[in-house]
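Input record (one chain):
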Amino acid sequence: MKPIQNSQLAGLLEDILGDELEAFIEWMSQPLPNSIRINTLKVEKDELIGRLESQGFRLKPLDFYDAAFRVEHEPFPIGKTLEHFLGHFYVQELASMIPPLVLEPKPGEKVLDIAAAPGSKTTQMAQMMENTGVIVANDVNIDRIRALSHNIDRLGVLNTIITEFDGYKFGFLTPNTFDKVLIDAPCSALGTLHRSPEVARWWSWGRVGMLVRTQRALILAGYQALKPGGVMVYSTCTLVPEENEGTVDFLLSRHPEAEVLPFQDFGFKMDEALVGWRRKTYDPKVKAARRLYPHRNKTEGFFIAKIRKPT
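The corresponding structure, as predicted from the sequence alone:
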């Protein structure tokens, strides 16, 4: 990745990362190794490992999740294997697997994935739920819904209903309904610069402002759709405080009873959420959320907050 020419973005990253900006840019200049999640709905883990290794792939198991593997050698793209076509695994970035693990959907529960496409986290949750209960997998974009539908079919997911709504509508369409809600919100994607360098060209505070409006609507709707006692995870793949801590702080300003819960780090280097940004001070409860910086973890960048609606 070349030095950042976008002055607005360069200023933001310097403010957030300080002395670590150079390490961030260096890491984002490197291709990210592939990782996969073995789909135990369709195949036994050892059986798939044997099949892939017989074709020359080298896989490294990872401690944080028994279905997660780093691909250390690819004789050809792993996404072109028969096993991928058959839905025996999903090519999924490691940090992307964390929000469902934090949410902990259980067999038999009712779960809302409010911005689900293309389906990596939806299918992971179905796997965690052993294909029982029900997941409402929603997206507003029909092209992305086609990808979501394809992946749900490919991975043998049977407990999922696909809907096409503006996500904010779930707050009044299905209030107090779901045991768990996942909001992997549309965001400015600064945690993915290594594979999407074009983000650095289009990033602007104007775009962030539009995204924040969407994120605020989604987090309010997700909270309203939760049953009392239910749990919601709000996540993004960006580093922008307004999209992360600022959005959780907005929810707390509307619902001060909401609880921001601590969660395990799964062996990653996670930083506490910011307690303030520039001239803004956030609700102290926001601190329980976590930031995952890409250069410290050799992953994408992520923000994750776990929120409970009291009974």
